[in-house]
Structure formats: C-alpha cells, structure tokens
Amino acid sequence: MNKLSISASSLLLSVFAFSSTSCGGSAEAGSPSGNTTQETVADGATSSGINIRYIDSDSLMTHYNLAKDFQEASMRAVSKIESARQAKASEIQKFASAIEQKGRSNGYLTEASYNADMQKLQKMQQDAENYLAGLSRNTETELAQQQLQLNDSIENYIKTYNASKGYDAILFKAAGVYFNPSLDITKEIIDGLNSRYNKVGESK
Hints:
Distance between the termini: 27 Å
Helix content: 40-55%
Shape: rod-shaped
Number of helices: 4
Number of strands: 5
Low-confidence stretches: 1-47
Order of helices and strands: EEEEHHHEH
Radius of gyration: 28 Å
C-alpha cells in the first residue's frame, strides 16, 4: 500500500513581487530637470530613484493569523490521512494474520475457500489504496484552495496598503541578497492583515 505524504509546509507562499506606480508624474532618475525625488533612510544614507520596501515572508507566515490557521488545518489534514492509513493497515494485517492462522490449523477444507479469502484480502488492499488516494486528492485540493486564498489575501492587502504609500515596488526579502533594514515594512503588513482578519469557524 502506498504511503501518502502531504507536506505541512505547502501553505508557504511562493516569492512574488508587487509593484505599483505612485500618483503624479516625476522626472526619470538622473534627468536634466533635477526633479529626482530623494529620501533619507534611517541610517542617514540618501537614496534616489525607485522607492522600494520589503517584507520578510517567514515572519509573515509566522504571525499572520490566517496563515497560522491554515497551517493548523494542514497539520490536521496530515494527521487525518495518517490515522486512516494506520487504521486500514491494521484491518488488513488482522485479516491476513487470520488467513495465516487458519491455514496453519488446517481450517481451509477446500482450496476454493482459501482462494476466496485471498481474493477478499486483495480487495481490502485495493479498496484501502483507493480510499487513501481519494482522501489525499481531496486534501490536496483543499490545501491548494487555502494557498490561493492566502496569496490573494496578502496580495490584495498590499495593493490597498500601497495605494496610500505610493511605493514603486514591494518585494519579499528572499527576492534579494540584501535590503537596508530601514526598508522593512513586515510589521506594518502583518498588523494590517491581522486587523482585518475575521477568523472563520473551524471546519469539522
């Protein structure tokens, strides 16, 4: 019987970048007009041109309540599949042992009766595989839907958030090698996401 493996980390977001153009026209960086926007960052350095911020996705997944709820749901789904697998395996093993014991004690009076039990054992194995495969598919579908919901929730909030901020790009930290810590808006995003999140009743 095939063991089913469902990754509890399937709810982690893939890295993607969000960008939006800030309102109002501005001259290109380095243009002769001299209208390039400059911003003083926390360490005293001055940056010009593209206005970027970043988010730590690991922290986001750890502290965003929707992500935590989906992670718990994923773990419950994994546990449910494993419990079902163990139950089916125990049932099959019990019947297989009964066949073996009956054979040793000459309990089969005819070859036909032995073959009938062996066919039943094979059917139990096949039925168990089909059941677990179906359970796995249903779980994968549910987790994929949760992944999409999580991605949409974060993306939609970031677009709303950036409408008032006007950043040129908001990236996940993993998209780059180094970001100035003063560009980190992770906490703002987490606080904003959690403030609008209404937990739905747990599915049974």
